[in-house]
C-alpha cells in the first residue's frame, strides 16, 4: 500500500495511491490523524478496493508525514561516503534534526537560498515509524516500521560548516524533498536488497545498494529508542551514499533551473525542480 499526503481544494488530507489516482481517506475515516493510521492501518486497508476520488495530477503532493513530530537524519552512514570525506567511521550514529518547514513533497520546487551557491544533493532512504517503543532491541526493530520513502537531504554546505553542528546547513526553508509517498513495509520486503540512485538533470550522481549502510535500519531504531520513545510518524533519514557534490573536483552544486531525482526500487521516484529564493 502506498500512503500519500496531499493538498486539494484548500484542505490537507491523506489517502491511498490507486493507479494514477488517489482514494481519499481522511474524511472516510472520520478525520482520524495520519499517525493513528500508521499505527493501525487496518481501516485504511479496508478502502483499498475503492475507486479513486481524484487524479494525482489534480493535487499538490506533500511530504508523506507533513507535520512529523521528529525528523532525524544520520550523517556519515554509507561506507563509500565516509571514504570520500576522508573521515573515520563513527562509533555511533551521527544524528541531527530537520524541521518540517525544510521539506517539500514530490514535484514541488526545492529552493536554493540566495545566501549560498553551495547547495548539495543527498539522496536517502527514509524510515517512517508506525509503532511506539522504547529500548527496542534490534531483532524487534522492524516491527516498529510503518514504511519507507525517498528523501533528499538538501544541504547548504558552507552554512553546515559554520559550526560543528550540522543543523544550520540542513534546515533552510524548503531546501529538501520527501516522498512521493510512503510504501508500507509489507510491500517493500527486505530493504537491504534495494538500490538508491540520485540523478541531477538526468545524469546519475549517486548509485549504491542500501546494504552499504554502516548502521542499518534495525541498528538506528534500536539506538534512537534508547534516547527517547519512538512514536508513529517519526522519520529517520538514514544517510546518503557516496557521490555528493561537495566531495567532487570540481564541486557539483544544484542550481536554479536544475531537476533533482532520488529513486529507490519499489519506493518510486522523488523528483523536484530547483528554484532560486526570491530577493
What layout of secondary structure does this protein have?
Layout: E1 2-8, E2 11-18, E3 21-24, H1 34-39, H2 42-45, E4 54-55, E5 60-61, E6 71-75, H3 79-85, E7 94-98, E8 103-104, E9 110-112, E10 119-120, E11 123-129, E12 145-152, E13 155-156, H4 157-160, H5 167-170, E14 176-184, H6 185-188, E15 195-200, E16 203-209, H7 217-227, E17 235-237, E18 259-264, E19 268-276
Parallel strand pairs: 6-17, 8-14, 9-19
Antiparallel strand pairs: 1-2, 1-5, 1-14, 2-3, 3-4, 6-7, 10-13, 11-12, 11-17, 12-14, 15-16, 15-18, 18-19
Instruction: Report helical residue fraction.
Output: 10-25%
Q: Hey, roughly how much beta strand do the residues contain?
A: 25-35%
What profile does the largest beta sheet have? 12 strands, mixed
Number of strands: 19
- Taken together, the total number of domains comes to 2
Named at the architecture level, the CATH assignment of the largest domain is Alpha-Beta Complex
How many helical elements?
7
Helix and strand sequence = EEEHHEEEHEEEEEEEHHEHEEHEEE
Q: Which structural class do the helices and strands define?
A: alpha+beta
Measured between the Cα atoms of the first and last residue, the distance is: 42 Å
Radius of gyration: 18 Å
- C-alpha geometry: globular
- What is the level 1 CATH name of the largest domain? Alpha Beta
- Model regions low in confidence, pLDDT < 50 over at least 5 residues: none
Amino acid at each position: 500500500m502506498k500512503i500519500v499526503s496531499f493538498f486539494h481544494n484548500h484542505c490537507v488530507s491523506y489517502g491511498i495511491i490507486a493507479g494514477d489516482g488517489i482514494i481519499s481517506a481522511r474524511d472516510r475515516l472520520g478525520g482520524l490523524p495520519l499517525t493513528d493510521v500508521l499505527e493501525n492501518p487496518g481501516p485504511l486497508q479496508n478502502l483499498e478496493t475503492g475507486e479513486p476520488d481524484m487524479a494525482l495530477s489534480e493535487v499538490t503532493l506533500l511530504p508523506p508525514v507533513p507535520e512529523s513530530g521528529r525528523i532525524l537524519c544520520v550523517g556519515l552512514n554509507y561506507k563509500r561516503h565516509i571514504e570520500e570525506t576522508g573521515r573515520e567511521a563513527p562509533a555511533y550514529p551521527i544524528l541531527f534534526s530537520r524541521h518540517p518547514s525544510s521539506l517539500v513533497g514530490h514535484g514541488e520546487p526545492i529552493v536554493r537560498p540566495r545566501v549560498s551557491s553551495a547547495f548539495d544533493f543527498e539522496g536517502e532512504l527514509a524510515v517512517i515509524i508506525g509503532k511506539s517503543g522504547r529500548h527496542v532491541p534490534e531483532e524487534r526493530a522492524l516491527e516498529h516500521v510503518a514504511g519507507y520513502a525517498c528523501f533528499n537531504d538538501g544541504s547548504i554546505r558552507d552554512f553546515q560548516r559554520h559550526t560543528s553542528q550540522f543543523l544550520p546547513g540542513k534546515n533552510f526553508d524548503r531546501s529538501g524533498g520527501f516522498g512521493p509517498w510512503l510504501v508500507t513495509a509489507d510491500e517493500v520486503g527486505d530493504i537491504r536488497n534495494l538500490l538508491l540512485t540520485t540523478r541531477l538533470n538526468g545524469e546519475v550522481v549517486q548509485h549504491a545498494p542500501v546494504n552499504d549502510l554502516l548502521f542499518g535500519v534495525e541498528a538506528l531504531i534500536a539506538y534512537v529508542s534508547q534516547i527517547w520513545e519512538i512514536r508513529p510518524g517519526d522519520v529517520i533519514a538514514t544517510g546518503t551514499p557516496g557521490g555528493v557534490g561537495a566531495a567532487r573536483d570540481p564541486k557539483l552544486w544544484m542550481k536554479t533551473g536544475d531537476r533533482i531525482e532520488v529513486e529507490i526500487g519499489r519506493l518510486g521516484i522523488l523528483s523536484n525542480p530547483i528554484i532560486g529564493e526570491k530577493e
